[in-house]
Amino acid sequence: MEIKEKLQDAYISHVLINGEHPKSVFVFAKENELAEEEFYKYYASFEAIDQDIWKGLLRLTIDEVKAQEVWPQYTSREKALSLFYSFFELLKSKRSFVVFSLKSSSKGLGSPSVLDKLKLEFEEFSADILLEGIESGELMDRAFISKKYKDALWMQFGFVLNFWIKDTSSGFEKTDEAIEKGLNVTFDLFQRSPLDNLFEYGKFLAKNSGIKMPF
Fold this sequence. Notes:
- The protein has ten helices and no strands.
- The radius of gyration is 22 Å and the shape is elongated.
- The chain has two domains: 1-44, Arc Repressor Mutant, subunit A, CATH 1.10.10; 46-201, Tetracycline Repressor, domain 2.
- The chain is mainly α and 215 residues long.
- The longest helix has 21 residues, at 46-66.
- Helix 4 packs parallel to helix 7 (116-136), helix 5 runs antiparallel to helix 9 (173-190) and helix 7 (116-136) packs across helix 8 (149-166).
């Protein structure tokens, strides 16, 4: 096991046993028979460990879903659903730590800071599957708007994460339902709608009939 993984495991054990962050890097390093300067070779702070743990959970999930034989045949919608279901299934084994991490994380105007590295991984994954969907015709390529699709997926991720934290249903079945309903509605909005057809018809009329359109 690598030093970073050992530090992560030791950190998780500490916060779950003590219900709080280590008092200092010096104390944490001493508890784990490590020189303080050795800790700083790998992490600048305890929050940096938190961020790496979250990023690692998502990276592990992405690698696992992409390894499925059916992955290349999945639509963008199915790929997003697969990631969400698999990620929250994995979180069950880390629930105590996840709850602690989110509740103790600093919060600004956006998402909790412990999710900063995870968000970059998530956005890269989302951008890839959304581009596939646009190129295949599954999703509508809308000027200026399609670039925001990944932001909508991130909002869904945040919503489901908050829902899961509060979910008291057996086996977190309500979370599975929230994933299904939320992502299906989101991807429905990404696809061509009657409004798109109306907009295209309006452009056709403006181009071919001399009628001035208000857009």
